[in-house]
Give the backbone structure.
Amino acid sequence: MIRFVHFSDIHVFQADAAWKPRDYLTKRLTGFFNQKYLPRGKQFREAVEVLKRLVDDLYSRKPDMILFSGDATTLGVEEEFAIAAEVLRVGAKDAPPGLAVPGNHDYYTRHSYEAGLFEKYFAPWLQGDRVDQHTYPYGRQAGPFYILGVNSSQPRRWWWDSSGMVGLPQLERLKRLLQKPEAMASPKILLTHYPIALSDGKPERRHRRLKDLAALLEVIREHRVGLWLHGHRHKPYHVKPEEHQPMHALCVGSGTQESLWTYAEYTFDGKKLHIEHRAYQPHPKRFEKVNNIILPHEIH
């Protein structure tokens, strides 16, 4: 018996973050306008408060591991990373071990990516086996499972482009990581930000999709990865296995978006995967169980 908690897309926003002249020439300008004056800002206006309740709830449940699939921030500024890491208690002595990957908002601009802000603030949740000391991908044993953290996010210039890419170098390292004895001997779980498909099984729109999805699927199919966990989309859903994608894929949704604010607890009992979704209730301001799903197939 082992339990993981999984959350994503918390989108911490800091309106008073310091700006540099270069920021006015990036998508950060349109992102700030969207957050400050358009509906998206209202959807995440209570993000930090709800995140505090989420942390209280999941820590009280004492999971074996915390899984975070990215988008800690809104604009990828350092102040947002600092707030998110503090509220999440990343690296706290009494915290369960964590495993994280960045989302596209964490690499919102090239500066966010090159400065390594996600890697700086989430370093305690980025520990594991690596290939040639590259940060991604990495793997970690958790009970009987081997969990793979793959970075599917890249900085994009245009405000409308939120597509992702793993990239050939990382795919080659992933192949080598999957050939390690501990990975070969264990059922494997992939954690990344981007999904396989939408909730109806159809592909993401071109400007939002993982561009090298087919190449990643080829690698994880060859090495029998049994479960794909992700965020990016803000409503939870389950994509069932198909011939070209022979693994379950679970989107956990957003932990802090108004009216959706959900996270998941996964319990593996050796034969079945039990998925409990816990959602925030504005009254009485706490997370509670909203449904329970059982996947009857063992994760190979």
Q: What stands out?
A: DSSP finds nine helices and twelve strands in the chain. The two ends are 15 Å apart (CA to CA). The CA atoms of residues 163 and 205 lie 9 Å apart.
